[in-house]
Amino acid sequence: MRLLQALSKFAASKSLIRNVRAAFSQTPLTSDTYKVERGNYGEIASEDISIFKDIVGCSHVVTDPSDLEGNNIDWLKTVRGQSKLMVKPKSTKEVSEILKHCNERNLAVCPQGGNTGLVGGSVPVFDEVILSTQRMNKIISIDPISGVLVCQAGCILETANKDLAGHGLIAPLDLGAKGSCHLGGNISTNAGGLRLLRYGSLRGTVLGVEAVLSDGAVLDCLSTLRKDNTGYDLKQLMIGSEGTLGVVTALSILCPQKPASVNVAFLGVESFEKVLKIQQCARKDLGEILSAVEFMDSECMRNVTHHLNMTNPIADCPFYILIETSGSNASHDEEKLGRFLEEVMDAGIADDGTLATDYTKMEAIWGLRERMAEAMLHDGYNFKYDFSLPTDKMYDLVRASREHLKGICKSVVGYGHLGDGNLHLNITCEKYSRDIHSAVEPFVYEWTSRHKGSVSAEHGLGFKKRQYMAYTKSKEEIMMMKKIKQLFDPKGILNPYKMLPDNF
Amino acid sequence: MARVLVGVKRVVDYAVKIRVKPDKSGVVTDGVKHSMNPFDEIAVEEAIRLKEKKFASEVVAVTCGPTQNQETLRTALAMGADRGIHVEIPAADYPKVGPLHVSKILAKLAQKEEAGLIIVGKQAIDDDCNQTAQMTASFLDWPQGTFASELKLEGDKLTVVREIDGGLETIELKMPAVVSADLRLNEPRYATLPNIMKAKKKKVDKLSPSDLGVEIATNIEVLEVSDPPVRDAGMKVENTEELISKLKEAGLV
Fold first, then answer.
1. Which residues of B touch A352 (CB under 8 A)?
2. Among A111, A460, B140, B207, which has the highest number of CB atoms less than 10 A from its own CB?
3. Where is the Electron transfer flavoprotein alpha/beta-subunit N-terminal domain (chain B) (predicted)?
């Protein structure tokens, strides 16, 4: 069964590779699609290339355009840059030397980890030098007593998790991109993910960050202390600043115990009001063992079963809610879960549901949620939104969008981290068009702003959303951010055209 | 219509990373997640489908083992089995139990319950024995269809498509018969909550092996359990020159 699953995953990924190749020729250049002008940066010359080769070694400087295809385009295939140069350092020292040189020559730099970001923040817009962390994948230390992992920025989340498992630990975050995303990138974007509900945000779990600044100076905040109130907490500036204030080269992160008992329940619900009731019950009955609460609508289920050949484990329902518990005692958790499920079934709040009895089934159920982004990619061009909204109003936006875009778009789906008040709204159409774009935006942003939500809960602003910061942040806040950027990167070479709006 | 007996075994979950005990006497099972043997799940699913198609009158799930095996029975009942039989074996004696005992037990139960068809998984993922179906058939002197990837029942004629090394073999058996389920026989259903609730009320009979006249004694002693040898890591080289120098270093060229 696992073999069949693996084979079908492989088949799906092979077609995805074909799609990337096809899409690359289809995705127009960012500079053609969006109104953006190249900054007053230097042009890369052959002397620069030889200097980079001296720093990292000949074989770690990539200049062949066909080799750079995948690094110039984002995972969603919506933005495409024109970089002709990628450098792959393996140490903080090499990163420092690279940035020192780029600063002297006024060369723009685009730091790149796993390139799994969803807002076009990890790919160049013009000819920025791509600084890849793929070779910086060393685990420096894992302390089983304190639970602290210290590693280089290029460690892939899933790989780190495997090493942590050997010590009875897990990473405090989990997301669908875990097979490719780098921890450095996770930190630079303050990634949220599926377990934020239980383990909190990276702003709490990251204990230390080492970053290289725009002039090559190394800012060593790599502490492993749980508590340290000795001045401004500079690492918080590196977290979530999307590579615009420094390049993260190493990190230390507090990892929780690997739970002895994990359970996954998947419920089918008639209405969003009942979804909210189930969440309330879950909080009350499952309390401290609750580790994830996710929801999706029937349109989501249709897409994921149709495009990825997956099976709905229960009957077709308008809404679905996934509840995961993680604890240290199997029988204790199962008892609590059993009582909770009986309660929601007897009260008629849930219409159908299943409780995964083995790990393979748990993975299959999680797959329905984790592979949603992948499924939507197969449906057409994606307008992807990630909003923080008051939980009770969350689905109203989906309904409003469906109404507003009737006849214009293919699918409008809503899913996300119900427990965190975070909606993922996806709108697909056959092909991108400016008309569809202007129908969708600023409608969704204005709606969110009216309800005092955030226009980017966890995805960040990157390239595609930087102009919308003002929907959620005040003029004074944006002004202060620009002052900080000027302080850290006076020449503006770190990830230009990203995160900060052009005019304010 | 036949009464179908399905054997289900409680094993360490398929996705768990198995660790050998430091004293090499076996693998670590304490505190490790257990579930129904995946092939047995397929067997249960097939039996339930036969009942849904009105080829079987009743599906009885059977498990042999200590108290925890009740969970496995409950899963079978939640999938749709009508009732369960738990042949209780104390935890201390359980390591002695193997396919020989289980097949004797299943054979006796088949006679006691007047079953017309026995379906088990082709093998358990912990011991990989692949012996229970065959021995059960032998004790009962019933025909057997092992490694079934397709099953068709018409009256008392059972057509089984078997997965064999060379491809597929189709055989015809006259009921009563024993079948062992292979991977591609079906995709087991999820146990839905309404059925999980119903399962709590379904009947589970408890027996001991001696009730069936079966003795738990073994002539087999496990001497040692050890990890497979660690595979040496490969290495990447930068260019052909380096490849040649590494090969020379290893004395291979």
1. 192-194
2. A111
3. 24-216
